[in-house]
Amino acid sequence: YHDRDGVIWMDGEFVDWREAKVHVLTHGLHYASAVFEGERAYGGKIFESRRHSERLHKSAQILGFDIPFTVDEIEAAKVETLARSGLDSAYVRAIAWRGSEMMGVSAQNNTIHLAVAVWHWGDYFADKMKGIAMTHAKWRRPDPKTAPCEAKAAGLYMICTLSKHAAEREGFADALMLDWRGHVAEATGANIFFLRDGALHTPTPDCFLNGITRQTAIKLAEARQIEIVERTILPEELSTFSECFITGTAAELTPVRSIGDVDYKPGEVTEALVTDYSDLVNGKIMMPAS
Ligand code: PMP
């Protein structure tokens, strides 16, 4: 990713893509004092852009720092970076981190940096509409008393990369992570939904990100008069569901074909919501009122 043409917005200026560097003694690198966003633009417009910028601010606050750019300034940076990329459909990555003045657990006065990069990123999964095969992760989502789960914080992704790599080594596309209690939580970069008897069941987001795509999928389902049941889901229940899909900015709505030895059929409800989501992000339908 570092070796390509283009520009990246860094701390208020555009720098050449290959020159967008940080020092090796950056606090964010050593101690994961970084928060980020993943967003997608469709037809030149970033979907739910402002909510992502607001979440970035909130994530930073949870980690105890203030981003030295307002939400409006971040919005402007994203719009300009997207425009400069020349891309219509693109992935947008905003990241804020503690700089390199002090090295140690304490870094009270380190400069806070912000960067925005935009690049082409097609489907997150190959053959997405066939449904992905998932395995079980050995790592669990931490207790909210152990880690600040509501922040989209770089540090929380250590568990995700461990789980994703383990899944990929065995030929799976992704892994289902349980939470610290052993309840079904989410995939390594997306939330999860299950269908049973016409109702959608999804875990209560009390120790993982309540994704913007997750909230959008709920609105789309409600607009179709599909009942949403947000609750504790136990792994023993996985075989009682007929359809399953995951939601995330990168994953969009991706059907799940199996989790471990349980099979699902990407069916009518999943397909309808995949279409609705695509229509929504492409501006063909309006966001349903909640
Ligand atoms: N959970 C995790 C761990 C994620 O990385 C993501 C992607 N940001 C999500 C859920 C879904 O969040 P969103 O729909 O806001 O992209």
Q: Can you offer a commentary on this structure?
A:
- The N and C termini lie far apart (39 Å).
- The protein has six helices and 15 strands.
- A hairpin with a 2-residue loop joins strand 10 (191-196) and strand 11.
- Strands 7, 8, 9, 10, 11, 12, 13, 14 and 15 form a nine-stranded mixed beta sheet that branches. Strands 2-1-6-5-3-4 form a six-stranded antiparallel beta sheet.
- The protein has helices at residues 27-31, 49-62, 71-85, 157-169, 212-223, 268-281; strands at 7-10, 13-16, 34-42, 45-46, 90-98, 112-119, 132-136, 174-178, 184-186, 191-196, 199-203, 227-231, 243-248, 252-259, 262-263.
- It has two domains: 7-119, 2-Layer Sandwich (D-amino Acid Aminotransferase, Chain A, domain 1); 128-281, D-amino Acid Aminotransferase, subunit A, domain 2 (D-amino Acid Aminotransferase, Chain A, domain 2), CATH 3.20.10.
- 25% of the residues lie in helices and 28% in strands.
- Helix 2 (49-62) packs across helix 3.
- 4'-deoxy-4'-aminopyridoxal-5'-phosphate is lined by residues 38, 152, 160, 186, 189-191, 208-209, 211-214, 247-249.
Fold-level CATH name of the largest domain? D-amino Acid Aminotransferase, Chain A, domain 2
Number of domains: 2
Tally of contiguous helical segments: 6
The residue fraction in helices comes out at 25-40%
Rg for CA atoms: 19 Å
Bound molecules: 4'-deoxy-4'-aminopyridoxal-5'-phosphate
Q: What is the H level of CATH, i.e. the homologous superfamily of the largest domain?
A: D-amino Acid Aminotransferase, subunit A, domain 2
Largest sheet: 9 strands, mixed
Which class do the helix and strand fractions yield? Answer: alpha+beta
Number of strands: 15
In round numbers, the mean pLDDT is: 97
Please state the second-level CATH architecture of the largest domain. Answer: Alpha-Beta Barrel
Query: How much β-strand is present in the residues?
Result: 25-35%
Instruction: State the separation between the terminal residues, measured CA to CA.
Output: 39 Å
Note the run of SSEs as H and E. EEHEEHHEEEHEEEEHEEEEH
- Mind telling me the CATH class of the largest domain? Alpha Beta
The best one-word shape is globular
Low-confidence stretches: none
